[in-house]
What does this fold into?
Amino acid sequence: MSINTADWMGQALLHNSGVRQIPMCQFPLPGSHDAGSYGGINVKSKTQHFSIYEQLEHGVRYFDFRVRVDRGVFFSHHGADESRDNPYTANSIQTGTTYLFGEITRFLRAHIGEVVVLNFKDFTAVTGQDFTATDAADFMACLLRDFGAVPSQNDLLYVPGDIPTYGRCIDLGQRIILLINDEAWPGEWSNWALPTSTTLRERFSDYKYALHSWNTLVDDTLADQQNYLADTGSDGRDPGLFWVSQAVLGYTNMTTPNGGSQNKEGASHLNPVFETAYGQWWAGKSAIPGVTQNVQQPNVLLLDYSGFYDDFATICYNLIT
It folds into this structure.
């Protein structure tokens, strides 16, 4: 059926009350890789076409955010390349300019059935500076101010004890779940964020565009991801943790012959294939032709150019209804 991707979670709840009992780490979620890497950023590092608000409208509910600081100003980056026109918080910009936390808050105020997971990592500073404990405290203060620091009807930030169900987030009105890389985080965070070391697993298939044909890249990455899901050992999928599958990885330091983004080129080939594979995986079926093994459910599919070539939210909606 046709759905409104801006409200796909809320629509699913209307059609299936059992959605309330699903832990967020078992919810099928469209994800955005290097979500803030658009706008004024080197073309080879551009990974998204839509703004954060537009990504939310297209159904994205998991955001991979990288943070760089320059004298107390926090903005998005992708490796060595920066996207200074995508600041995270109002402290970092002139009044009246769009900032990423503001886009998220504005969206969630308008769409009360939606829940988002924000994963912050790769905390770095510009050349000549370090990301310090003071920076960490300042960044956390911005998160608490922009998303809500005290549980109340007007706050959006989930105060963690464990990974909540979708229904718990809705009942509490706390619909932003923070994940922070605690191994690199020098400040006090434990009361307001879930540590990635104990709540998150990621699988990055390191197959590079320049070394494979498109068909080989798709086949090898599918096989790698699915074999990981099928592993029941210590490295396998734990349904009690967030599990992220990175579908597009391994861009080179080159652009396409016409000067465009190689990440966009890769997404145009891979996103439609991985959407279909994700739907099969989540149903416990093999996505590899000729392979009949059952696989465990993945959780998040992390895409470059999320929402640009696909209607992934509809797939997730259909899976849970």
In short: The beta strands are 29-32, 62-70, 73-78, 81-87, 116-125, 176-180, 194-195, 200-204, 242-246, 300-303. Residues 156 and 174 are 4 Å apart (CA to CA). Residues 92-96 have pLDDT under 50 and may be disordered.
